[in-house]
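Good morning,

Attaching, inline, the backbone tokens for the sequence recovery test we're adding to the shared suite. The designed sequence is right after.
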């Protein structure tokens, strides 16, 4: 309840009273510290959780998110891959690994991971998973390209509503290659919609 209410100090105190200390409690304390941007303390507790349970995929993933926000993308990638090997059907870990590959400009890998995430959980990009035991990290400096690719994925799945939503987000993020929207075969059905034509009439976003 404290975590849900963002009362992180109270959550830490409560988890710290658990005897004997469990890997789950250590991981949750790490999350609480991370939500307060105390990355040093968060790392300490994630590492303790992993030492207590070496195959604890959630804690390994969460440690990866710390390296990601610190822009150590190589280390984040390694931890996400380790976590994914333990939980290959985790859509959230696929997303995190995809974001790390995106930061490293590996187009094939990040697109593959995002597609896998969507196949595993069609709603993965419409909610956030930071209220439980696993953190998702979706910050990126390539937001326009990220949103454009999600628009393509949704268009291919026949979800024109979400495709339009992410086209709009891509344009708002400064996506400039509108010819791709007009020529890409994945958007054939979307281009037939009046909403798409309205979007194309809007002037390019200047960032």
């Amino acid at each position: 309840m404290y975590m849900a209410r963002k009362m992180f100090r109270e959550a830490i105190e409560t988890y710290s009273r658990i005897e004997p200390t469990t890997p789950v409690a250590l991981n949750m304390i790490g999350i609480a510290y991370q939500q307060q941007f105390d990355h040093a303390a968060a790392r300490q507790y994630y590492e303790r959780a992993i030492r207590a349970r070496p195959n604890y995929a959630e804690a390994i993933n969460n440690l990866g998110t710390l390296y990601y926000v610190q822009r150590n993308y190589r280390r984040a990638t390694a931890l996400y891959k380790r976590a994914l090997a333990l939980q290959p059907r985790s859509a959230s870990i696929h997303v995190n690994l995809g974001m790390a590959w995106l930061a490293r400009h590996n187009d094939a890998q990040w697109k593959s991971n995002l597609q896998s995430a969507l196949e595993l959980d069609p709603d993965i990009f419409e909610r956030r998973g930071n209220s439980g035991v696993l953190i998702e990290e979706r910050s990126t400096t390539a937001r326009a390209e990220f949103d454009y690719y999600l628009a393509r994925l949704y268009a291919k799945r026949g979800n024109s509503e979400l495709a339009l939503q992410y086209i709009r987000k891509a344009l708002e993020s400064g996506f400039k290659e509108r010819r791709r929207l007009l020529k890409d075969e994945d958007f054939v059905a979307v281009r037939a919609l009046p909403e798409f034509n309205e979007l194309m009439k809007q002037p390019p976003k200047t960032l």
